[in-house]
Amino acid sequence: MLRIALIGFSQGYYAIEYTRYLSRLKDIEIIGICDMGKDEKYVMDCAFISAQDFALEMKAPLYHSYDDLLKYKPDAVLICCETKDHGVLAEIALKKGIHVFVSKPLGFNYEQIKNLDAVRQKHIRLLCGNPLKYEQGIVEFHERLQNKEIGSVYSIRVMINHLAMTKQEWERNTKLSGGPFGTYGIYLFDLARWLSGKSISKLFAIGDNYVTPEIDAYDTIKIIGIHTDNTQCLLELYSGIKHDYPFVQVEAIGDKGTLITKYDNYTLISQSIENVRLGSLRSTDMTIGEMEHFLDCIKNNAEERCNFEDMTYVVRCLEAGNESMIKHKFVDVKWEGLKC
Length: 340
Description:
Helix content: 25-40%
Oligomer: single chain
Mean pLDDT: 92
Distance between the termini: 37 Å
Shape: globular
CATH topology of the largest domain: Dihydrodipicolinate Reductase, domain 2
CATH architecture of the largest domain: 2-Layer Sandwich
């Protein structure tokens, strides 16, 4: 029996969905829920359920202190708190020999995460969240590129559309959340690198805030990246689109062909004499894939699909992107902490 605990409700949807899925498995015991001392309004705003009610649903004790929960020695923890605390809480668990899953992103600057790999014991797993690495179409896209279906890729474009999170105070505070770029930049940098197998050596970024003045950060960002082999990538983040629009679009151009996925297909099209109506845009439940992979890493020593090295690369790119938007010029990605 694998003993797992939930840490925090800040990443509301993910905190609830991860834990509910695991609770349905016969070989998993949810041994505790920790609200990190947050009040009921905070938890309700994030997760749309109170900490007490969720603990009752999971048939698990509710803790208000991370240290108190760790005294009951979970085998693994799901860290779903405010982003700035991800690295600190992960480090505490890793030092105690506890497997760690961290909801995306692991952090938004290098200082927050730099110690994690050094404190982790060899057999202990650290899996970082990135739901898109488990989306069926993206996985197939990756496999086709790895099989050289379009030859050598010399340009890749990744577009992410995710509305800026503004309901919770912590999400509006860029020092706690990293803002839209810190929150969703993982999709841009990690996905482009995973798909193409190429790392950015320098980049130029531009951004502005068009529709979310309540956040002191850019909601729309475009990045031109130059890979270490001088090939290119174009990364786009839109966090202000409020109408129905695809979550992700990816296009890879190779010397033998092109692969494109736009996610603008609909579940159904209803036609009549009066009108044509579209169903919702297609989507995949990626949270299950993340949890299944986390269990595979723990039980079968599977290689983490989104590991510490990947997240070090992401935060180094985030730092370079922020610097580029301030200086309005190309900026080199710092290689300290990276093996690539």
